[in-house]
Amino acid sequence: MTKNSNDYQALRETYVARGVGNGNLHVADYAKGATITDIEGNDFIDFAGAIGTLNVGHSHPEITAHLKNQLDKFIHPGFNVIMYESYLKLAEKLAHITPGDFAKKTVLLNSGAEAVENAVKIARKYTGRQSVVSFVRGFHGRTNLTMSMTSKVRPYKLGFGPFAPEVYQAPYPNVAEKADNVSQEDFEAQAIARLEDFFIETVDPEEVACVVMEPVQGEGGFIIPPKSFVQAVKKICEAHGIIFVADEIQTGFARTGKLFAIEHFDVEPDLMTVSKSLAAGFPLSGVVGKAEIVDSANPGEIGGTYAGNPLACEAALKVIEIIEQEQLNEKAETIGQAIEDKLNALSATHNFIQHTRRLGAMVAFEVIDPQTGKPDKALTANIVKVANEQGLLLLSAGIKGNVIRFLTPLVITDEELTRGFDILTAALNEVTSTQQV
Ligand SMILES: Cc1ncc(COP(=O)(O)O)c(C=O)c1O
């Protein structure tokens, strides 16, 4: 007898850790582009892209064909045991495509958190300093150090202490919080002044090994900082010998209309962490940056058993080719604009849609109770739940859980986008009518 998604719920309940979240309770069968089909034949339009890992889309034919060939050669010789070409070529490629006209080196790893951990290890070794600065509302992972660098208490931190020492969180401006009577110029000047105060009140810059900054905050709610602020952070780093680490794990590989989001701010990071869309769904991450800094770690001090798996490296090399061939930077801008236009139209009839913002195809809006002006986490959760039930994979975000974010594959077709928005509109209508009853 063929099974349906419900048949698997008992397995999920009985054998999978409760702490693992599931946004959608269906079971995937196959996926292509921006559509996932479940085992009952239901289609889901994918506005989540496996949390931003699928800029080139599901099962890109070139990647699938290439990896089938690779599988016949070998699976994992282990780079520490014997080298293989794809790791070397990928390190070379990353050195060339990341910003900064200086010699660069790369260490490849598995997950985003692991990349951030290693960036901190490298920065500490290079500077001989211990302190790490991240930002309020930031997200860097679920290991002890990266959880300590992360801001959102529930669900990421509550009950999981003690946290790593010498981690400090600096303020990161959110333009949605700018009062109407404050000019943009004053808002930016105040944000920089607060940052300077942070280095007087909280930690001395001469003790800081690195500042780890998301050029656009991802889990924090797609917060796009002013260019002047990012440049001020870099300037402080330069003045005090602090390593500037751009965490591009969610923002990288064409998501924002440039290969890396930090390029929008005309800042060249010393180190960059990459993962997610780097390898089209394979677990792969890396720290790329100034050769002199990366080389402060001695042989054997960084890396890992599965780090830089050859299938993942081959996928990454193809991803970089596809981004160029299919002009995904340009597509990100077109898709982002189309999403923004649709959201602006929807906000005319659904007044809880506020603060729509985007950089390329990194688009989000906030759900605000129009009566109180406060973030509406419950309504956000309801919209996401109904959308997921009705055939749209949709994610929330934000420190207050009231942001809906769009991380669609950049190969999404007009038809998929329209279908996705039809489902979203139906979900918005349904939650609004339930609320009014
Ligand atoms: C900016 C950023 N850094 C780090 C991470 C952690 O990555 P991973 O979940 O692969 O450990 C994420 C994941 O969402 C992220 O968005």
UniProtKB/TrEMBL annotation:
It catalyses: 4-aminobutanoate + 2-oxoglutarate = succinate semialdehyde + L-glutamate; (S)-3-amino-2-methylpropanoate + 2-oxoglutarate = 2-methyl-3-oxopropanoate + L-glutamate. One of its GO terms (molecular function) is (S)-3-amino-2-methylpropionate transaminase activity. It comes from Staphylococcus arlettae. Its EC number is 2.6.1.19, 2.6.1.22. The keyword Lyase does not apply. Belongs to the class-III pyridoxal-phosphate-dependent aminotransferase family. The gene is puuE. Keywords: Aminotransferase, Cytoplasm, Pyridoxal phosphate, Transferase. NCBIfam families: GABAtrnsam, PRK06918.1. PROSITE patterns: AA_TRANSFER_CLASS_3. This is (S)-3-amino-2-methylpropionate transaminase. One of its GO terms (biological process) is gamma-aminobutyric acid metabolic process. Its cofactor is pyridoxal 5'-phosphate. InterPro entries: 4NH2But_aminotransferase_bac, Aminotrans_3, Aminotrans_3_PPA_site, Class-III_PLP-dep_AT, PyrdxlP-dep_Trfase, PyrdxlP-dep_Trfase_major, PyrdxlP-dep_Trfase_small. Pathway: Amino-acid degradation; 4-aminobutanoate degradation. It comes from the Bacteria. The keyword Zinc does not apply.
